[in-house]
Amino acid sequence: MKSRIHTYLLSALALAAFSAPASAELKLSSVFGDHMVLQRDMDLKIWGWADPGQEVSVEISDQKVTGRAGDDGRWEVKIAPLATNAEGLTMSVVAGEEKKNFSDILVGEVWVCSGQSNMQWSVSQSYDADIEVLTAKFPKMRLITVPQVGTQEIQNDFKGEWKACSPETVPDFSAVGYYFGKQLLMTLDVPIGLIDNAWGGSAAEAWVKREVLEADPKYASYIEQWEKTEATFNYEAELAKWKAKATQAKAAGKPFNARAPRNVLTGQHRPGNLYAGVLHPIIGYGIRGTIWYQGESNAGRAWNYRDLFPMMISHWREEWGQGDFPFYWVQLADFRNEVSEPVPSSWAELREAQSHSLKLPNTGQAVIYDIGEGRDIHPRNKEDVGKRLARIALNRDYGMEKIHYKNPTFKALDIKGSEAYVDFENVGSAGLYAFDVKEGLGFIIAGEDKVWHNAKATIVDKDTVKVWAEGEDAPVAVRYAWAENPVANLRTRENLPVDPFRTDDWKVSTQPE
Predict the structure, then answer these.
(1) Could you give the residue ranges of the DSSP H alpha helices within 39-97?
(2) Which residue in 118, 172, 102 sits closest to 144, CA to CA?
């Protein structure tokens, strides 16, 4: 993880270098470079900086296009779609007497890998890392990582470079991204480019432009809280207090385990920080789509996430100017202790918010509450996560309709006396399957009193489950996998779990008054 560990505080000089690149010399954004992968079959933007007013030409394949730097020194050109190329192209960029040459450029499929720590989580930290790294010899898969810069000042560039996937380059790269890309590579046999800009612990609000949040009344209280923090937080003072306490403890011969304070103003929670510092530098680079793994940091505001998450997706798409590009995410894994009786769950509510976001076009969700680890918020099984995301892309973006990717979802509820019959859709090639034991696990049931009871369930046909509970003679509502760490076992024969759901619309724990 050494290459993924960055300080929260960058010097003003370093920030200035990336927010306003010097225009005295020809420069391209760092997202362009040797070994990069360009997205095939679409118009592509190429941009950089030069002297204001200077003409710039870009030549690649059989194309030569020209543009002119604006008053701020920024120039941009657009090249026509390129066909798949795994042999390696060259690109030259010329401005006056200056010339930049780039080589070993492939043309294929490009995906952004974004989110928080479970997307950042590296191959070296995942299961079977030792043997996986040994075999990660995929010269047609290229990787680039965007450094973690949290700032309110819009950044136009970053320090990073494309590298071919190899045992030397893959250990510190996103494991979910790698396994997703590997499956695409092995299936499609075309070059794959992966851009990793994930940041552990990040809040979704940090990935949205600050002005967008400020303009929406739904986020007024959140912005107000941050404005108070921004007005009062003094990182140097907090650090000095911590050092003083550490010195006192050492002098007294006492242990001191308190973690050093973090600068929240340059961190991954402040609204707009990651949009400005991590996302903006790559916006406009031609991509097929985005895979996303985030939500843990927003679980306490799960109800708000029903609006925030789809708004964030739409915001990214608008900023990219590439239409409704594919945006596929990972639903929260199981976490914390299993519970014997039904209780409110913010994680279940966050999962519901994620599923709610499927209303947006060209979206998809990988459900993984069956492969997490209750005692660890960072499950080590990233291979199955990447493969479930790849199923979505292979079916929806690459025409492989025989690949099942949809999780079974609630369709209808039919109450017959004391029994509830739940109908599902998207049940796969062979209908619903109960893993490990024959009975269905994970259901709770309630009557008009809204008191939830653990329920029993049995599969009655390929897409219907009968649910009942002793002591509840007049049920009106059913929930499934409604817990932080649900014990639930219904899935398809393709091993895709039933999406957690509830049939009621009763007020939940994170819903405001």
Answers:
(1) none
(2) 172
Regions of the chain with pLDDT less than 50? 1-17, 20-23
Q: Strand pairing partners for 163?
A: 143
According to DSSP, the residues that pair with 328 across neighbouring strands are 291, 364
DSSP E strands, 80-234 = 85-95, 98-115, 138-145, 163-165, 192-196
Return d(Cα 326, Cα 317) in angstroms, integer: 9
Looking at 195-331, list the stretches that DSSP marks H as alpha helix, in order from N- to C-terminal side.
Answer: 210-214, 220-232, 235-251, 273-274, 302-320
- CA neighbor of 332 nearest in space, from 290, 302, 308: 302
Chain segment 461-492, per-residue pLDDT in tens:
999 999 999 999 999 999 999 999 999 999 99
Task: Give the model's pLDDT for residue 513.
Answer: 87
d(CA 450, CA 504): 10
Structural domains in the chain?
Answer: 2-210+271-396 (3.40.50.1110), 409-502 (2.40.10)
Place of tokens 């759901």: 501
Q: Is the pTM of this model over 0.85?
A: yes
pLDDT tens-digit series, residues 255-278: 999 999 999 999 999 999 999 999
Give exposure, 366-402, as e/b (b: 16+ Cβ within 10 Å): bbbbbbbeeeebbbbbbbbbbbbbbbbbbbbbbeeee
